[in-house]
Structure formats: structure tokens, C-alpha cells
């Protein structure tokens, strides 16, 4: 085993900074020798100061528990004895080690001088696909018992178990992978090179045969691809039989009449080559509702069915949950493939060559290590499987697939290429799962990634119009433009241009334009680009409407503005940028063509450089086309706008252009070309009518409409309350409204014991309400989490929300859907405003202008139905299972005081609606929950 003594330490403290006088309140050390846990020492520590309430809430440790505990000074000799000749290990070692060193110094002892391992860093290498590297989430995913998260004894013990698991997993890797990891590990932040050195030495002594699942090619270990069973029997049973099979395979299966209706409708639509739109309320089970008839139809007719979703999460869920279930049930095998755009896949040739570069930049080294381990496990080569740092994602740009400049045959990895394998699998698959983004990109691209198909299911269909606007439009941001263009670099930057120049010199290839002239052209282009953004930022800042206290601003560029004297300098500077880009593309395209035509014998690293340069030119051409579209072309039926944050211009500047309507595009490119399209979602109707949705997507005629209500009894399990003691938002200043809402929400939170999601339509109002509630001091024992303020993605915030008993989650529009919090974790949903889009939002303004010109009322034709569909999405968060109970509070009194308020209530499942003041609400909550 390994010749180390490992000392795994975890501390609980009164706060984050020893410099600010924060102290240790509990310490635990787990000793590992010979690869086994042999001892654990744990002690409470008297901090000599009160424990803050939020620390008590987090750790469960209170003042009584530490009042008779030893001071740190008393246990310091024991700690030093344990650490003697050991390696210090912790989950986020920087925190625990620096805290311990500060306390040792304070107590008059010498600091610990030995090596340290960080299990967060190790987790990133050993489990590169983990959803999260937090201790609780890691222990959950590895099924390790973690009894008391945030208490040092439990945290230290589970960290020790995780450490041993990682060492065991890494030891199973093939020697070729381990040797590369060892070499890279010298550049990590903690001393993990000692661990890799020991694993490699051990492995060299006992060389084993390569595992059957792996192969080694050109010095890289890869997982072999499994080949699906391809027998083609007929399926011999029809839809009703599925109930018996589901009951056999699904624990607690409840028969759902609506699901059977959905299956029959879809089967019929496919058979009759008909389009159908199906609203399937929460609990219908729509994923199985469309997947099963799709599988039956695909197998029976040998036709492919494409399933398109809006989110990557739903794609993964379909593949790993519903498809797995159907594979168990189906009497005949069927083939499913998940297909994404090509730059989701790794280019193995580029990666192989990147390993030969002597690179010490931390994110790059870590990412290379993660990819080396991942390649022994992935069958898809899809980067969405990896959990990369933001620096790692930038490095991925160098490795992503962009096709080939040199012919396929010049790529020694062609037989192992993931992108080509995905395309080949799609050719042979019965069911292809993709996303709206890929579906729409494929629609406008000349060479299609998807194989020919006539049958399509669009899930989360209420997003189709928005997705189409984004994909038929242009979005560019200053930082990405800077990053992608800077990869070329001038000669003294030693980037792509310099590396290409070296290659050309070594093969004595002469450029038409001299290197130094090209260098000047590139330098001038960089100056022009900076100048253009400086001019654009200045116009943006002068012309955008600013509101007090709000930093994010937006400016719609109208035709009138384009013809004004303000816009002329923008056009002139952008013309210079575009001209410079054309010049650069022309010169370098010629260079690449010359290398190809002259059939120059290139080394592998030179081939990889040519492919990297080709990728750069692909991106540069796309960027130039976008600049031309936005600044030089006539943008009929498009809306153009700029977004930014006044605190960080031009860094935060984004340029967007979108078609105002996409109904014509969707009609001609999808509905007219496909034999049968099924569109489904839980929220497609407004007051029982599909008309708004169908108009938006251009499918007004020749479509069957089916509305399936939720099987849940909302009257039994939910209530809706409208407070009467909060002012109407239109009648008071924003500040006054936020104060009233905050104090009301504090009262509600105390009654519901947290378990509450508060939804806002504006980030600014969210931030101010969160701050007021936090500063009130009345929610000391509650954990408040806010989107965009407390760290983490939407998924991470949701997971953290479920971890704490008394939690309140603040979210904006992206939380209105896609958040799935079943059970008691979420009992109360508060909506601060009805979810109308801001009227001055550019796309809304442009749609209103068109509707007015057609003699229609923009409010009733667009703003109201759009808000109702969002409102339905919000209410849909509350009841996710038949056993859930919950309450919706709508603070916006317009739901009761206006004529259109009725339309909101008519569009959601029928539930009891009450009005009253905070006192009524609290007593109602106490009775009800």
C-alpha cells in the first residue's frame, strides 16, 4: 500500500477569517495508515466568544456545547503530535490549513511544515463528471453515510472515506494514463504529485493486463465503444399492454388515464401523418407519454423519430431514466442516440498534441488531467459530461470539434472520432434525442447534422418560439469577441500567428504578404476593434435610459437611430473592423490552402496546429458575418439592441439581434416539411385556448388540439391567497412596495418555517427584498438563498434549498420553470408580481409596434397571454407529486382587481382562492400546512 500517514482534518469555526478574530469551535482528525482508517481524535474547542446564530444553524453547535471545552492552546500539542511526519488532508485544504496555522501561531507554536492534499482538487481529477465537488454532494453520490454535515467529526470521517475511494479509483487507471497524470500533477496547487508518484511506482511493480473495457491508442487510454444489439423483431403488443409492464417495473406505479390518452393520440398522429399539439398538465407523465408511441412507431415502420427538448437536463433525464425504463419493458431492443452540435465533442487529435505542450497554467493542467481520466470512462466524448472550471471551458475551445481542414485521412484519430461516431449512431438509431438549439441550427444550416427524418416530437414546446428567435438571430458579447480574436495574436504575443509563422519558416513556405506586413495588419485590426467598441459604448451610455439604483441598462437601436448622426461613427468604425477581418481571413486561408496543395509533409504537432488555425478561421468568419449582419445589412423584421452593466463597460456589453416573428420560418422549415410534428408541454393554453401559442409558432391550421388536465386534485392539495394589506404596486414608489412586501414575507416565512420559493420579475427587486429580509434580524435561524447573489447555478441553489430545514429561495424568471422540488421541501410559493415582461424590453416593443400596425391590441394579443403561460409555469412548481400540498401567495392585487385577472385564475387548475390580511394568512397557513 502507500507509505504515507494521512491526517484528514476538518474544522468548524465562528466565521471565515482568522485575521478578523474568528475562532475554531470543533476540530476532528482522522488518521489513515496502510490504506486504512486507524484512529480519530475529535474535540470541541472553546472560542472565548459567542457562536453566531447562522453558524449554530449551519453546524448545530451552540454556546452550551463549547462552554466547558478546552481552549485551542490546550489541544495544540495533541494536534502537532498527530500531524508529525504526516500529510495534512482536508476538503478545501487552503481554508482548514491556514486557519489551523493561525491558531498555532496565536498559541505560540511553530506552524505545520509538511505537505498537504486537497480532496476538492483530487475530486476534480478522480471524478471529472461529478455534478458538484461539495462534500455533502460527493458523499451522497458515492452512497457514503454522512450523519451530521457541518460537524467536524462527521465531515472529517467522510472526507477520509472519500480520499480512500479516490486513491482506489485512481489506482485502477492504466499505467499510460497515470504516467501522464503524474507529470501534470507537479503544477497542481496541493502536493498531490506525491500521491501520483506513489500510485505510479506501485503500478510499475505490479503491471496488470489492460481492463477489457479499455484500449490504448497512440499512448492514450480510451474506453471501448459498446455496439448496441441490432436485432429487428416486430413489436407484438399494442399500447394498453404497457400498463402491466409499467406496473411490473415502476415502484408505486399509479395508472394515469391521461397518459394512455396521450399515447393513443400520438400513435394516431404518426399513423395519419398529422400534426398534434398536446397540453399535458403536471403529473400526466408526458415523457413516457410520447416516448413509448415513438418507439413503437419507429420499430414498426423503420422510420426515425426525433425528440427535441429545451434543456440539457431533460435530455439527460430522458436518456438515463425514461429510456432505461422502456428498454426494460420493450420486448424488442431499440436504439436511442443523443445528438448535439459538433463542437460539443472533443477532437482527440488536438487533445493528444496539447499534451505535448509544456503548459503550467493551472486551469489548463487541471482540465488536461480531468480529460485523461474521463477518456477512460466516456462513450460519447461529449464535453457536457465534464464539470470544468471556467478557465477549463476556455481551454476546451482549443479542443472542440470544428470538422477538418486537412482531409480526414490526415487525422490519425479518425477511427476513434466521437463526432463521426455520434453521426453514424444517429444514422442507425430509432430514436434521436436532441435540443431545440440543434434542431433550429440544423434547420438553417446547409449541411445537416441530423439524418433525414419525417416524425418529430417537440417537448417543452412553449419555448420553441423563443429558441427560434435566438437561433435565427445573432448574439455577441465583448469579452467573447476579445477572447476569440486574441487567439491569433501578433508575433510578439507568441500565439497562433507566431506558431504558424514558425511552421512556415521550417518548411520554407513563402507568404504572398511578408510576415511583418501581416503583423502590422493584425495590430491595426486590434486597434480598430478597440476603437469600434469604444465608440459603440459611448453611444450606448449616452442614449440608454438609466434608472436610479439600477446598473443594468438596455438600448434598442431603431431605424431612426441608425439614420442619426450618432450612429455614423459606429458604422464607420465597424466597416474598418470588417475590412480588417476580411483581409486577415483572405491571407490565412491562402496559407492553409497552399499547405494543402503543396502536400507538405507535416509532423503531427504541425497538423494539429493547422487544425487549430482552421478552427480559429471558422470562428473569425462567423464573427465577421455577424458584424456585417448587425451593422451593415438591412435588418427587416428584426429587432437590434445593446445590453450592459454601467459598472463594467465595455466588458459587460452584449449586442443582440432577433427576428421579431418566427412563425413563417417555423411553418416553412418544420411544419411544411415534416409529416407529423407533436408539440407538447404542461403550459400551452390560455383560458383553455391554444390560439396564442399556435399563432406564435405559425401553426394555425391543420393541427389536432388535445388538452389533458393534471390527475392531481388541486382543490384538495393547494390553495391560492391574495393579501389585502399590501399596497398596489402602481400606486406607490418602488421602495415603499419593496418594504411592505419584505415585512409581509418575513411573517409568512415564520409561519411556513421556510420551505418557500419567492419569485420576482425583476432582479433589482429581488436583490432589494433579499437585503431587507436578511438585515431585519428576524430570520436569523433561516438560510436565505438568492439567485445571482448567493453563489451557484440554478441546480445548485435548488439542491442547497433541499438540504436545509428552514430555507427561503429567491428566484427570477429563469426559476419559473425547470426547478423540480417535490415533497415537503417546498410548501409555499410567493409571486411578488404577475409575470408580465417589461414593456420597454426590445422584443416586446417591436412586437407591440407590429401588432399596433395590424390594428390589434398588443396587451391582449401578446403581453397578457405570454404572462399567463409564465404564471402557469410558476404555479406548476408547487405540486410535483400526488402527495404534495402547498400554498400560492400572489402579492399582485391585479389578479383580483382587474378584468384580465380572471384569465390568470381560469388558466390554472381549479383551487380555493382567498383574500385577507397577514393575520388571516398566517392562521390559514397554520391550519392548512
From TrEMBL:
Keyword field: ATP-binding, Helicase, Hydrolase, Nucleotide-binding
Q: Which domain of life is it from?
A: Bacteria
The EC code for this enzyme is 3.6.4.12
Q: What is the lineage of its organism?
A: Bacteria, Bacillati, Bacillota, Bacilli, Bacillales
Indicate the enzyme's highest-level EC class: hydrolase
Q: What is this protein called?
A: ATP-dependent DNA helicase DinG
